[in-house]
TrEMBL record:
Organism: Flavobacterium ginsengisoli
InterPro entries: Aminotransferase_I/II_large, LL-DAP_aminotransferase, NHTrfase_class1_PyrdxlP-BS, PyrdxlP-dep_Trfase, PyrdxlP-dep_Trfase_major, PyrdxlP-dep_Trfase_small
Family: Belongs to the class-I pyridoxal-phosphate-dependent aminotransferase family.
Pfam family, one: Aminotran_1_2
Cofactor dependence: pyridoxal 5'-phosphate
CDD domains: AAT_like
EC number: 2.6.1.-
This protein's name: Aminotransferase
Domain of life from the UniProt record: Bacteria
Keywords assigned by UniProt, alphabetized: Aminotransferase, Transferase
Residue ranges of domain Aminotransferase class I/classII large in the record: 32-381
């Protein structure tokens, strides 16, 4: 029998991959499941995006292999977007690398910078992929606490007490997933100073900055951030293009070049038509964000009512694509709580535990659900 690589012993199948099989089984049995678990936008990209892709399909030169670095005009559109939205200047020639979704960037960066035994600072709670990729490259996850009493921000005194001698990378993501904590430029300044002090590569995962957020920020707004930091961003949430797989990593040329060395050995470029669609998306004006947020605001209001129906306390300061809520006193297991709701009311909600031990006692609702479905979920109680 052919045995698997030992690295597979360090990871499990992604939670949503296995849980959604369970959900599909219930649906096949005739259950009407309302899926409030995953953050896959159900809204469409703009008309301009669809038209750009449709036109590109007819381009006889658009069907071959593409550059590993993407079309020059797409990198320029990404640079223009960062300048216009964040006031950050980046060189499109060597400080931006387009990605097939920012999730692949987590793997590329880890492969480029981590050796076996290197330590990686990972937020708890935080995106589970930071841990799984760290394990796959045989580095060591070191968790730093994010807690509600600290506004879901790092405790720098606690960080300084850790053994940081082997730490190579620190992951963060503001607006924060899963809690929706906004972060601040003051926090980013502290993080950049911390990374410089300890010679750590700091990476901000920033796909939620325009969803229900009146003050989008970038880590690269901090003076000197490029010396030690990268930022990942994505068109998935901002422009409803999750399945298109378009992301980017931004930083100084030396670091970007290291990531490119990995990426160029992993794929053969992004499809031409998708790049043309991405360019059109990045040129959307302010009205695009306003219209999207009108929809998400109404959904959030209803979702908060659902959470309160479950006697949960909503984290009202949160932004982004999710509602984070604390379970009622006396509930011992978030996973048991959501399973009871799944099997009794046929509503799928995410338990906070999949994001780390500090997620116990919390649940997360996705806003990628139409208003009438959220109202139906409320009515089921």
């Amino acid at each position: 029998m052919i045995t698997t690589a030992k690295r597979l012993d360090t990871v499990e199948e992604y939670y949503f991959s296995s849980k959604l099989r369970e959900v599909r089984q219930l649906m096949s049995e005739g259950k009407s499941i309302i899926n409030m678990g995953i953050g896959s936008p159900d809204l469409s990209p703009s008309k301009a995006v669809i038209e750009a892709v449709a036109a590109a399909i007819q381009d006889e030169n658009g069907h071959g292999y593409q550059s590993y670095q993407g079309l020059p005009e797409m990198r320029q559109a990404m640079a223009d977007f960062y300048r216009d939205q964040f006031g950050v200047e980046v060189n499109p020639n060597n400080e931006i690398l387009p990605l097939m979704g920012s999730k692949e960037g987590i793997m590329h960066i880890s492969l480029a910078f981590l050796n076996e035994g290197d330590h990686v600072l990972i937020p708890n709670p935080g995106y589970p992929t930071y841990t799984s990729v760290t394990n796959l490259v045989q580095a060591v996850p070191v968790y730093y606490d994010l807690k509600e009493e600290n506004g879901w921000e790092p405790d720098f005194e606690a960080l300084e007490k850790l053994d940081l001698s082997k730490v190579k990378i620190m992951w963060l993501g503001y607006p924060h997933m899963p809690t929706g904590a906004r972060g601040s430029l003051a926090l980013f300044e502290k993080l950049v100073a911390f990374a410089k002090k300890h010679n750590i590569l700091l990476i901000n995962d920033n796909p939620y900055s325009f969803v229900l957020n009146d003050n989008p920020m970038s880590l690269l707004q901090v003076e000197g951030a490029k010396d030690v930091a990268l930022e990942l961003n994505s068109l998935s949430k901002t422009f409803n293009m999750a399945g298109w797989r378009v992301g980017m990593v931004l930083g100084n040329p030396e670091i970007i070049d290291a990531v490119l060395k990995v990426k160029s050995n992993m794929d053969s470029g992004m499809y031409y038509g998708i790049q043309k669609g991405a360019i059109a998306a990045l040129k959307c004006d302010k009205s695009w964000f306003e219209d999207q947020n009108k929809i998400y605001r109404r959904r959030r209001e209803l979702t908060e009512k659902l959470a309160e129906k479950l006697n949960c306390k909503v984290y009202k300061e949160g932004v982004g694509l999710f509602v984070w809520a604390k379970l009622p006193e006396g509930i011992e297991s978030a996973e048991k709580f959501i399973d009871e709701i799944l099997y009794e009311k046929h509503i799928f909600i995410t338990p906070g535990t999949i994001f780390g031990s500090n997620g116990e006692g919390y649940i997360r609702f996705s806003l990628c659900v139409k208003e009438e479905k959220v109202q139906e979920a409320i009515d089921r109680f």
